[in-house]
Design goal:
Layout: E1 7-14, H1 20-36, E2 40-43, H2 50-59, E3 61-64, E4 76-78, H3 86-93, E5 98-100, H4 104-118, E6 122-126, H5 132-138, E7 146-149, H6 152-157, E8 166-170, H7 176-189, H8 203-216, E9 221-225, H9 231-242, E10 247-251, E11 267-272, H10 278-289, E12 293-300
Parallel strand pairs: 1-11, 1-12, 2-3, 2-4, 4-5, 6-7, 6-8, 9-10, 9-11
Helix pairs in contact: 8-9
Length: 315
């Protein structure tokens, strides 16, 4: 006798998964391998996703922590998160071929920080210590030129040299709501603070968070596919919890699911961080379909059509 499967509605967020900056970075590695042949070296994970990294390794990419691990006669690519200025300077000194895969929206933050510095302003970077994007942004300027602020409490105790001559920039992958709280504290304390011309949190981060908010309250369980070191993916979990999901969890793939989580679950919310490939989403849906009578309903809050050009050396 065929066992009747329990019913499960999957609310699938749109947009989800790869953003234009991640797409571009992966293409850069693929095109570099085509142009120069393997091996091509990549400083740090090109994007924060082990599945993406492993696929590129199979194609001939070699991932390293620092430039001194790269031979001087092979191309090297800098990750989408951006690098301190000292890194391309070292590559040039060694006469290496290098390609910068920094997301253009991260580069925009770098340009803003330099503009404020040239104007003589003290700069605050709202972000998370230890994240490579933060290291890259702080590394655009001399040591001490940028102060990192991680929380509203940090913003309350920050003591500038001249309260009337400060500016802030932000990491691109933060929680929109958390950042708004920190900015609110800074604006209240320093009304003259210079803000970005346009929001630093990237369009893809914002869009994915808005999609999660639209679904979370209906979700008994909310799963975010993404890596543990992916800032934007971890923020999606937090957003889901705040927006009313009964439980929200980060999983790298379907293999990480504990099916006991589904006890009493009739509606699953599902999204993927900006570094997670779509095949992981489909794999998770298939795993659910093997155990439940599933109905997938896409919840679209916006459509994305942003595309970033490849660097000229590869175009």
């Amino acid at each position: 006798m065929t066992q009747i499967k329990p019913q499960l509605t999957i609310l699938l967020a749109a947009p989800r998964g790869f953003c234009a900056g991640v797409d571009r970075a992966i293409q850069i590695v693929e095109e570099a391998l085509t142009k120069w042949g393997p091996p091509v070296y990549v400083r740090h994970e090109i994007v924060h996703n082990a599945h993406v990294v492993q696929r590129l390794e199979r194609l001939g990419a070699v991932f390293v922590d620092e430039l001194d691990e790269c031979p001087g006669d092979r191309p090297v690519i800098f990750s989408a998160h951006g690098v301190p200025k000292s890194v391309p300077a070292e590559a040039e000194a060694r006469e290496m071929i290098y390609v910068d895969a920094t997301c253009p929206l991260v580069s925009k933050v770098h340009v803003e920080a330099e503009r404020h510095y040239r104007a003589g302003r003290e700069i605050i970077l709202i972000g998370h210590a230890g994240h490579p994007e933060v290291a890259g942004t702080m590394g655009q300027l001399p040591e001490g030129a940028i102060t990192l602020v991680e929380t509203e409490e940090d913003a309350r105790v920050f003591s500038p040299q001249d309260p009337d001559n400060i500016a802030f920039v932000t990491q691109t992958t933060l929680s929109v709501d958390d950042t708004a709280g920190i900015v609110g504290v800074l604006r209240e304390r320093f009304p003259a603070i210079a803000a970005p011309h346009k929001e630093d949190i990237c369009y893809a981060t914002t869009n994915r968070q808005e999609a999660v908010k639209a679904m979370a309250a209906e979700s008994d369980l909310f799963l975010v596919i993404g890596a543990e070191n992916s800032s934007n993916s971890k923020r999606l979990v937090e957003v889901a919890e705040r927006a009313g999901a009964r439980t929200a969890r980060l999983v790298a793939s379907a293999a990480d699911i504990d099916w006991n989580w589904f006890e009493g679950v009739t509606t699953l919310g599902l999204t993927a961080g900006a570094s997670a490939p779509e095949d992981l989403v489909q794999e998770l849906i298939d795993a659910c379909a093997a155990r439940f009578d599933t109905r997938v309903e896409e919840v679209a809050t916006t459509r994305e059509d942003v595309v970033f050009k490849l660097p000229r050396v590869l175009a």
